[in-house]
Design goal:
Length: 89
């Protein structure tokens, strides 16, 4: 069984970005670690075969994914509530 833990999919890894001529941002192939337990020299040496260190943690979804339809329905309900409150017909 393969271990897919690497810096790239760790919650402490922050990718570096650049901006193209059109003003769009794109991710570079580099980044840095924001884990306070990693000594800077250890990070500069890197890790063998793109494996992660002992402090690797999975990325957690910060916000649950919500469908556009659910968002629009929720907005419609809120607009109806506001209209009722303001006595708009």
């Amino acid at each position: 069984m393969e271990n897919n833990n690497s810096c790239r999919n760790c919650r402490f890894f922050k990718p570096h970005y650049a901006q193209n001529d059109d003003g769009e941002m794109y991710m570079l192939g580099t980044g840095h670690c924001e884990n306070p337990h990693i000594h800077i020299m250890q990070f500069k040496r890197g890790f063998k075969n793109n494996t992660a260190c002992n402090y690797w943690q999975a990325v957690k979804d910060e916000q649950p994914k919500v469908s556009i339809n659910d968002i629009i329905k929720n907005m419609a309900t809120r607009i109806e509530q506001i209209a009722t409150y303001l006595n708009i017909k």
